[in-house]
Write a structure and sequence with these properties.
The complex is a heterodimer of chains A (206) and B (193). Chain A is built from 7 helices and 4 strands; from the N terminus they run ααααβαβββαα. Chain A has 206 residues and is mostly helical. Chain B contains 8 helices and no strands. The chains are: A mainly alpha (206), B mainly alpha (193). The interface between A and B is medium-sized, with 15 and 19 residues.
Chain lengths: 206, 193
C-alpha cells in the first residue's frame, strides 16, 4: 500500500512538472525568423559591413524588418534581384553611396611600405592577411574577397585594390550550358577514315 | 532579522559551498576561464539554487512528509532541480541568446551541480524553516558566485602570466583554488551559529 502511495505521489509530481515545462516550452518558444535565414543565405557572407551593418546576418535581419534591399555592394545586382524575388519587392539599382564598380578586386600590400602594425589583419573579415607585429604583412589572394575594409585602417596607405584581370584561369567557364551534339554517323565516318589511314583510336587520342 | 543576516554571511563566507564544503567544483573549474561567462553562470546558478531550495522545502514539507515518504527526498529533489533548470534554460534562451550560447552545455549541467542538490538536502538536515531555506539557498548561490567570479578573474590573469611549463593550464588553476580555499578557511569563527 505504501509503495502505491509513493508511486502515485511521485507520478503526479512528474505529471505536474511535465505540464509546467510543456507550458513553458510553448510560452518561451524561440522562433528564429525563417525569412532572415533565407536572406542570410542569399548574401555573399563577406561580412564586409559596407551596408552599414556589422555583418551579413544583421543586414539580413534589417532587410526582413523593411530596410532597403540595395545596400549589398559585394553582392551586386544579382543579389539584389534574388532578395527582391524573395521579399516580393521591386528590383532597385545598387544604392549610390554603396556603389562600386563591380570588377572583382583583390587587395595588395606594397611590402616595402608596410610597417607591420597589424591593423589591417584586425580589419580583415576573412583572415586573408598574414603577418605579425613589426613583420611585413601579405595577402592570401585566394582568400581575399576584395571588400576593401583593410584599406582605411592602414596608417601608411600601403594597401591598394588591384582589379583581377580576366584570364583563362579565372574566367567562369560555363561549359555545361553549351550543348554539344555528337552525331553518331559522324563518329562512324571518322573512325572509318582513321582505319583507312592505319591509325588506332588510342593513338589519335594520345 | 539578525539571525537571517548571520545565516546569510555564514553561508556566503564561513561555510562557502565551493571552498569549504567542496560542492559544485565542476562548474567552478569549467566555467571560470572567462569572467563574462562566470558572471552569466553565477546569475543562472543563483536563480536555480534559490528557487530549487524554496521548491524542495515545499515538496518535502507538504508532499513527502505528510505521507512519510522522506526516503524519496533525493529523487524528488533531483526532479525539482531538473525542472527548474529546464525552465531557466528556456527563459535564458528566450531572453538572451548570447548568454545562452556562452553558457552552452554548462546551463543544463546545473542539474547535476551537486551544490544545488546539496542545498536542498542540507536544508532538511538542518531543519531550516521556509525563510531560512530560501536564505540558505540564496546565500549558498551568492557564495558560489563570489568565488566563481573571483576565481575567473584570477584565471584571466593567469592566462597571460609566465607560468612554469609543468604548471600550465588546469594544474595552476587547481593550486590557485586550493590557496583560495585556504584563504576562506580564515573566515572560520567569523560567525557562530
Amino acid at each position: 500500500m505504501n509503495i502505491l502511495i509513493a508511486i502515485l505521489i511521485l507520478g503526479s509530481m512528474c505529471l505536474l512538472f511535465g505540464a509546467l515545462l510543456g507550458y513553458a516550452a510553448v510560452k518561451f518558444k524561440v522562433d528564429s525568423d525563417p525569412i532572415v535565414d533565407q536572406l542570410d543565405a542569399l548574401l555573399p557572407q563577406t561580412q564586409c559591413g559596407q551596408c552599414g551593418y556589422p555583418g551579413c546576418k544583421p543586414y539580413a535581419e534589417a532587410v526582413a524588418n523593411g530596410e532597403a534591399i540595395n545596400k549589398c555592394a559585394p553582392g551586386g545586382e544579382d543579389t539584389i534581384k534574388k532578395i527582391a524575388d524573395l521579399m516580393g519587392v521591386e528590383v532597385q539599382p545598387l544604392d549610390g553611396s554603396h556603389e562600386q564598380d563591380n570588377t572583382p578586386k583583390v587587395a595588395f600590400i606594397i611590402e616595402e611600405d608596410c610597417i607591420g602594425c597589424t591593423k589591417c589583419i584586425q580589419a580583415c573579415p576573412v583572415d586573408a592577411i598574414i603577418g605579425a607585429a613589426k613583420q611585413m604583412h601579405t595577402i592570401i589572394t585566394d582568400e581575399c574577397t576584395g571588400c576593401d575594409l583593410c584599406v582605411a585602417p592602414c596608417p601608411v596607405d600601403c594597401i591598394k585594390m588591384i582589379p583581377i584581370k580576366t584570364t583563362t584561369h579565372n574566367w567562369q567557364w560555363d561549359l555545361h550550358s553549351i550543348p554539344i551534339n555528337v552525331l553518331d554517323n559522324v563518329i562512324e565516318n571518322t573512325n572509318m577514315v582513321k582505319d583507312q589511314e592505319g591509325l588506332t583510336t588510342s593513338e589519335v587520342n594520345s | 532579522m539578525v539571525d537571517y543576516l548571520l545565516l546569510l554571511i555564514s553561508t556566503v563566507l564561513v561555510n562557502n559551498f565551493v571552498l569549504v564544503k567542496f560542492l559544485g567544483l565542476c562548474p567552478f573549474m569549467g566555467v571560470s576561464s572567462r569572467t563574462e561567462t562566470a558572471i552569466g553562470m553565477s546569475f543562472a546558478t543563483t536563480f536555480v539554487m534559490t528557487v530549487a531550495s524554496l521548491l524542495s522545502y515545499l515538496v518535502n514539507n507538504y508532499i513527502l512528509a505528510p505521507f512519510g515518504l522522506q526516503y524519496l527526498t533525493t529523487m524528488a529533489f533531483i526532479l525539482v532541480i531538473a525542472v527548474v533548470v529546464q525552465f531557466t534554460e528556456m527563459v535564458v534562451h528566450k531572453t538572451s541568446a548570447k548568454l545562452y550560447r556562452t553558457l552552452g552545455i554548462f546551463l543544463p549541467l546545473i542539474t547535476t551541480n551537486c551544490a544545488v542538490l546539496g542545498v536542498a538536502l542540507l536544508n532538511i538536515n538542518q531543519q531550516n524553516n521556509f525563510f531560512e531555506s530560501i536564505i540558505y539557498g540564496f546565500g549558498a548561490a551568492l557564495g558560489f558566485s563570489l568565488v566563481l567570479i573571483l576565481f575567473s578573474a584570477m584565471r584571466e590573469k593567469l592566462a597571460s602570466a609566465d607560468v612554469p611549463e609543468p604548471f600550465k593550464g588546469p594544474a595552476i588553476a587547481l593550486i590557485t583554488a586550493g590557496l583560495m580555499s585556504l584563504a576562506f578557511m580564515g573566515f572560520t569563527g567569523l560567525v557562530q551559529l
